[in-house]
Amino acid sequence: MEAKRVVVKVGTSTLTYESGKLNLRRIETLCKVLSDLQNSGKQVILVSSGAIGVGVGKLGLPERPQSTSQKQAVAAVGQCELMFIYDKLFGEFNHTVAQVLLTRDVMINDHSKQNVVNTFQELLAMGIIPVVNENDTVAIDELVGSNFGDNDTLSAIVADIAEADALIILTDIDGLYDSDPRKNPEAKRIPEVRYIDERIREMAGGTGSNRGTGGMSTKISAAVVAMEAGVDCYVVDGSDPKVLYDLFDGKKIGTCFRAR
Length: 260
Known about the structure:
With 260 residues, the protein is α/β, with parallel strands linked by helices.
């Protein structure tokens, strides 16, 4: 894969254990790989879910809260913890991170959107890795299940406005299958998709894990945004972040949604 500027999106189910607590070995590997890619001359933007999941773990809650106000409070705690971890781990590999929290109203207003574009350009020019999340503390779009999804569509919008060459979504399944591989052992992975129609959407099925709000259907929504923006979108298994090396080495993994 030839890509100079890349957006990598990582979901809650990839970042955390079933308990909601951070999978530190995996997140450390992710930060190491992204730092290495940055060292090689790539420009990396990380779109990270996990604020609520991490907040649940830090507060010792038995499950994700149900009310929007509780989710916002837990996200406020979790976002602080999440950025602390990213700052510490990326810092160990001599890279500086910047937190970018976005809301839908910012992205649809031309003036504020241009400010976001300018910020991304300056951060990347300075060699800083932006860490992006929807601002769950004040926005309810993701919390109530809007079509931002579990930051999937947000990551595609970021790839568009940052003029990225590729969007890579790390998730808990290694691409799009013609049927649910968790139920059907004969399910076949689809290596490349050039058009998204109802048949593809039906293959995507339902929602994700109990720690996140996304699923393959939100990956399809993100792929639509990315493809229309001229950005290739890759959906790959994020259980071992070293898979990013395979992708850049040209190995056929996951599913590539090819830009138009």
